[in-house]
Model the fold of this input.
Amino acid sequence: MNNECPMCGCVLCYTNVELNELLPCPDCGSDLEVRSLDPFTLEMAPLEREDWGE
Amino acid sequence: MLSEEQLESGAVTKRGIEIVRGDGSRIWDSNGKEYIDMGASYGVCNVGHCNPYVIEAVQKQLSELIYVSSSYDNPARRELMERLIEISPSGMARVFLCNSGTEAVETALKFTLKHTGRTKVVAAKRAFHGRTLGSLSMTFNPSHREGVSDKLFPVDFVTFGNAGELNDIVTEETAAVVLEPIQGEGGVHLPPEGYFKEARRICDEKGALLIVDEVQAGMCRTGKIFAIQHYEVTPDIICIGKSIAGGLPMGAAILHDKLGPMPKGSHGSTFGGNPLVCAAANGALRYMIDHDLSGRSETLGKRFLEGLRGIGSMQVREVRGMGLMIGVELKTRSGPYLSALLEKGIAAIPTGSTVIRFLPPLVVPGEEIDMTVKTFAEVLDG
Done:
């Protein structure tokens, strides 16, 4: 089960998630997307636009 | 005629509207459409747009003296520094005035590295301290700093709120621990109870300085003048910016008395402490105190949080905040909801891909908070 944050390795423990749901890593804050429920797979959510930092 | 987007560097994400006027909590675009400014332009306009105290102070100062170097004394500057020390936690004694929050953070870092003779800095994951190279070094996500500032000085990153991890990472090589009292850009995250008391204890034990970045959370935003006051902890350096001067650019690093003065010539700023912006800041601070914006923020913040939590939408994962520093985390991208809110006259701001941040001017009327909650509920439903 791939429930680790690809950025920092933190193990995510969310339950009742849906496909394509966005989950923030509770450790580093990276936005992750649920790419598959079985097997449970998280990937970095694609950045739609740069809107960080103010 | 070229648009601003065509002329601008390309670095800034544009919202697609042109704002030409502001008054209190409201802004108007060039078509005359009115918006409730639920972002205060990223927390800058705490005293509202075109605040009367700020306008009066600036107009008076404009006719007296706009600029003179801080190597000359000036009454507006002296008054501001005195005022900042007065409202700061007991023991804060000196002020370095600059032009932005990130400059205040750079000042704190530079001073700390020289003062302690140490090399390492500890910062939190999910933090944001600014975009200049030193501040940027303390951003965890490597994509924001790789190839740019990742080699300036070593930074150890900790999980915000984890005192045990902080205790393990801070050593006698650590110059400073740099923390936001509430992580704003990271998604409006509050620390667990006791975290900052532990951070203070760990810093004292290891001889590291505790630097608190109040650029977003400070200036009455969370229900106290400085958010660190909620935790009854006195830091070594407080960094402020954004709302300090009513919308004009200013930053400041406020230093604890025990650090002593900065060595002569060790730092400087051409425009830092200029009389015009000091006058504006004096006006803004007087307004904050005269109108008890801290109390206002506390009371209206509770109303806002209650309203948002009461919406009960399946789209919402969590509502969190303190005072009028509020984040709503969605389970999906916030972009379409922000656009829908803007269409309906509510200008909120994003944080990351999923969090909608509400940072209204602290002068916002209660009715506008209720209207925002109602509109947000409609947008989530629709």
Remarks:
- The interface with chain B takes residues 7-8, 18, 20-22, 24, 27-31, 45, 47-54 of chain A (CB under 8 Å).
- Residues 12 and 26 of chain A are 8 Å apart (CA to CA).
